[in-house]
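Marked as duplicate of an earlier ticket. Keeping the data here for the record.
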Amino acid sequence: MQAWIVAMMERFGYAGVAGLIALENIFPPIPSEVILTFGGFLTVYAGLNVWLVILSATAGSMIGAVFLYGVGRSMNQERLEAVLAGKIGKTLRLDPKDVRKAALWFQTKGKAAVFFCRFVPIIRSLISIPAGFAHMEAIPFLLLTAAGSLLWNTILIWLGVGAGASWSRVVRYLDSVGGAVRFLLLAGGAVVLLLLLRRRKLSK
């Protein structure tokens, strides 16, 4: 799958980034870490603009999130779990327990889960569904999704920029650490990025 993702991004550039991230949101087994870190590398290798890559990825995140939010609004949890228990779930490589886990996150964390779950594999995508189940207001959902997606995309793409040709090492490292460590690393990266951008702005 990784080779296919890389080939699509090399061929279609910004549109490839947006399309793949939208698919990653709808079909969570597609790894966003590969898409985003390689997208960062492409800004060096193929001359893509890093901020346009970030915006493309965030647009793709929003498309996928809105689709799943619509799924949640159109059916209840029991019906969706029944659907995923059949052939559709096997095709999408999704298990009903993934939906239950996302619903539990939303029930315990509330609306904030829409933001914070953007850093948790699988749940990152599926958290949009229980938001739909709960008929969460559209504007808060979109704002929290956009904020969480933008932060996740920005950090991973800049990691890809920094890693260059070694971008795949970032993917392997993120795969090897737990969700809490991953969140702390990305939060720390966000702080460093903000400080660097502020220093660059002051220097100008």
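See parent ticket for discussion. The mean pLDDT is 79.
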